[in-house]
Design a protein that fits this description.
The protein is α+β, with helices and mostly antiparallel strands. The protein is 28% helix and 9% strand. The protein has a four-stranded antiparallel β-sheet, with helices on one face. It has a two-stranded antiparallel ribbon with strand order 1-2.
Length: 250
């Protein structure tokens, strides 16, 4: 028979000593620290925000594409008059279809306070307005998410017969601009053109841009350089990638 003394000895032999436990805990701690450095949580968060930006811009592009297809009287700035504060497009088109160059065109931003540019900026190659420029005051909305023409993208999706394809216009996950807009500001940008006054220039086109911040998307995958647009400093999408400026802080 196994004595009680032998059973106790066997029980102690199968357990961990305090020293062994401390060694295991130390190893786990070292591995955890190494894992944190390997994963780079700051970069992971940046990449998650970039993925959201790419998804948001795709959503907006789809929604505006539906509006242009479904509406018999489309407008990419809600029929704003050329001199109106809400006018953003490089050309303005009336309900009757008359198009004129907009002398107060604006770049629209997803922020809820007025964005200021250092200088007026020249639009990209698809503009129908010749020497037209974007002004030094950007368009914004105190209610940026609205889809009734009063959001940061002044398009009335609620006017569509089938109803609005999205419930709100998304804004950048960080969504901040400096006192004077800078190229690296993490904010969405929008430019548009309704009708065309110049032969060969497209009508009812728009561009939406974002700045990506993660190493993976900016440098490794070069998403801003490989998006098909004309500016490697921005991730560009829309049905024209040649409306927002090619250079300059915007």
């Amino acid at each position: 028979m196994i004595s009680l003394t032998n059973m106790k000895k066997n029980a102690h032999a199968k357990g961990f000593t305090l020293l062994e436990l401390l060694i295991v805990i130390a190893i786990i701690a070292i591995l955890s620290i190494a894992l944190v450095f390997m994963l780079n949580p700051a970069e992971t968060l940046k990449k998650a925000r970039d993925a959201q930006r790419i998804s948001d811009l795709k959503t907006v592009k789809t929604a505006l594409g539906i509006m242009l297809t479904a509406s018999s009287t489309p407008s990419l700035d809600n029929f704003a008059a050329a001199a109106a504060a809400s006018s953003t497009c490089l050309t303005s088109t009336t309900w009757g279809g008359t198009t004129s160059n907009n002398t107060a065109a604006k770049i629209s931003y997803s922020v809820s306070s007025v964005p200021t540019l250092a200088v007026a900026l020249t639009p990209g190659a698809d503009t129908a307005a010749g020497a037209q420029t974007f002004g030094t005051t950007g368009y914004y909305s105190a209610t940026p998410g609205k889809v009734d023409g009063n959001g940061w993208i002044p398009v009335n999706l609620k006017a569509l017969t089938g109803g609005t394809p999205i419930s709100s216009f998304p804004v950048d996950p960080t969504n901040t601009v400096t006192a004077t807009v800078a190229s690296g500001d993490l904010v969405y940008r929008y430019a548009c053109q309704n009708g065309s006054n110049t032969a060969g220039k497209p009508a009812y086109i728009f561009e939406i841009d974002a700045v990506l911040e993660s190493q993976a998307y900016k440098t490794d995958e070069l998403k801003m350089a490989k998006d098909g647009g004309d500016n490697d400093s921005y991730y560009e999408t829309g049905n024209s990638l040649n409306l927002l400026p090619i250079s300059g802080a915007f």
